[in-house]
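Protocol step 4 of 6: structure prediction from sequence.
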Amino acid sequence: MKTSIVSALVAAGFAVATAPLTMAQTANPAADGPQVRHHAQRHQHGQHASRLPGERIEARIAYLKTALKITDAQQPQWNAFADTLRKQAREMDQRIQAQRSQRAQGPKQAKSTAIDRLQFRQERLAASAARLNETLTVAKPLYAALTPEQQQVADELLAPRRHGMFHRKGMRRAA
């Protein structure tokens, strides 16, 4: 049970660390569906659309530290966790900048094959698993150092439940 909680904590911690903290607002958010707002946010040409994870991570770390009420005794575990989030955000910045640079150079010469796409996906998944393992390594001692009340907050902030959803576009699992 505790292993699954820690795993969920780490997975959400990584997801939350890389997720945008600020979202573009529409004139009437209630009138637009979530897909419309998401589309507008992704294609917005303003300052927030081009922000990198490294530009948001300090705000996220400060928020988590405040919400978790990290004590002086928990500071070493917290520092290791926060440093890992910072490192991963910097690495994400580098990947995004490389992708932007590649897109700016124009379209690829040859069309990618199914094998090329599968290999690319395998590389991305392996890198994601490595990041998750790195996060889990520092999250376990932090979680163990938290009080039960802090763990409850961590369970909500770092590993929100997905309510049966397994796909980011909202597809539900078959019953």
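Step 5 (inspection) to follow. DSSP finds six helices and no strands in the chain.
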